[in-house]
UniProtKB/TrEMBL annotation:
It is a multi-pass membrane protein. It comes from Sordaria brevicollis. The keyword Transmembrane helix applies. Intramembrane glycolipid transporter that operates in the biosynthetic pathway of dolichol-linked oligosaccharides, the glycan precursors employed in protein asparagine (N)-glycosylation. The sequential addition of sugars to dolichol pyrophosphate produces dolichol-linked oligosaccharides containing fourteen sugars, including two GlcNAcs, nine mannoses and three glucoses. Once assembled, the oligosaccharide is transferred from the lipid to nascent proteins by oligosaccharyltransferases. Residues 358-369 have a biased composition (Low complexity). This is Man(5)GlcNAc(2)-PP-dolichol translocation protein RFT1. Belongs to the RFT1 family. Pathway: Protein modification; protein glycosylation.
Amino acid sequence: MADLKEPPPQSSKDATPPPTTGTRALRGASLLILLQILSRALTFIANQVLLRFLTASLLGVSTQLEVYYLSVIFFARESLRVAIQRQDTNGFDTGKDGDNKGSEAKATQAVINLSHLSLLLSLPLTFAFGHLYLSSVSEVTLRTTPYLVPSLYLYGLAAILELLSEPCFAVMQIRFQFGTRAAAESIATFLRCFVTLGLAVWGARTQKEMGTLPFAVGQCMYAVGLLGVYLVKGWKLSSVEGFSLLPRKLVAGSGSGAEKSEKRTDVQVGKETGNRKDFVLNYFYRPTLDLASSMMAQSVVKHVLTQGDTFLVSILSTPTAQGVYALANNYGGLLARLVFQPVEESSRSYFSRLLVDSSSSPSSTSPTSPTSPPSTSPSSCPKEPAKTTSTSALTQATTSLLTLIKSYLLFSLPLLVFGPPASSPLLTLIAGRRWTTSSSSSSSSGDSAPATLGLYMYYIPLLALNGILEAFVSSVASEKQVHRQSMYMTGFSLVFAGTGYLTLKVWGMGARGLVWANAVNMGCRIVWAWGFISNWIKERGGHGKRGDEVKGDGKGEGEKEEVRFRVLEVLPKPGAVAAAVVARSVVHRVVMGGSQEVMGAKEAVVELVKIAAVAVPFVVAV
């Protein structure tokens, strides 16, 4: 649904989306990665200054407030975002006299109407989650943390302000206008860093205890920045293309005769007599709304799994452990947020568009005919999985997915080899000896920041692999398959909770135990997603014509070859693995004392130079 001005699908059964789809997705991913690098670099610099004013317990409380804010945002918009990306526009009529621009405006208005539901959901979610958080916080934390309650209110306000920009965001996303998103998030990030850092420094100089207030005010400014940019861009686009940023009826009210014909400006989907059945309250496109509803249950489980580490550590561990894990998660997850998350988001849009368009054919949809039946493509959330995906599109999607996975695994090798031994000197330089020194005294209880960060390095490849696999799953899963995934996710959440109880309570591993619990959970999700994708590809044509893409063995053009999705297709070459083993043994011989060693800034620089001396030839060789 990214480019509504593209021509309708060709009559060929194996017709694929226009070649610009993949190119625009790739450009979007590149732009988002650049945006993430710049914004995270700015955030990183601000955080280094903030760490000088924070204790581990205060960092733990601020992390809990951020989870509250993210929970409101996630439950209010996540399922709607995924459903909107998969909305099929083939059923929307082309307007008066075949006006394709009118069809664009109508399809866009359907997206805007659905996006406004996120704002309605945010209001009860803000109050409900806020009440739950306050009831779960201990009296000691309330007394010892300055401005905790006002900070909670400000985080709730920030969530509502950010969701006000959701209709504009959805419009830009479906049109692949990533430049607007880049501008909005860059400005918002700058405002957040400037305000947060400014309040923290001012409080330190005036000897005022600011507590978590700088983080809360900074988050509000972030939401204001997003809303301002999106409103300006969205308003300009709406005035040109004829849609409204406010909810507008998609189906006209009851009427008759010439009066109804003259006043009707609605979207026509399906037969004339069945228009209203395709919409809820005349505002919301039913297939997309049904998909969003079915994904809501999965979103609950997925969010518990994503943020469950914070929930679990707040129940089973001390505020110090919470702060240590938050530090490791912030630094260890930086790479995932910089590179992997933008790729995941763009891939989800790419796979949705590629496989949705390939499933549409004139036999099932007729975008120029107001009397054609409603679309039954996967984007419309079929009750049962469709099995008519174009062979060429299937091959293209499988090849793209395998290439991404193989690149991820190859990129993970230097991270696994050099990440753990570099964690201690890196923390010394970026966070100060305060964190490494205090952590060394608690290393026996598992709350050592260098050791926790070192272990987190092994978790990052699992995080990246799961992200790209689940992006594909969310792009192709039917309503029935989404429900089945939710059931498995519920089981994985129980596995996560059980593992966390063992590592935190029984074995007393502290923050490191939490990393282990997350790794076990992520492994379960990867195995399930891999199995789902493998079966999905097999059901839609384990064999297909690959034409000139077939390599070797004298196979000619058009000859059949199996579309494979196997583990052996993505594993790094034995030579790369052997080089990694050798490099790791060399690093252990040249570094001073592993991730547990406490060192000064000078020693830290020396250790990093040693590690870099081994890393450079390894990366070149691999």
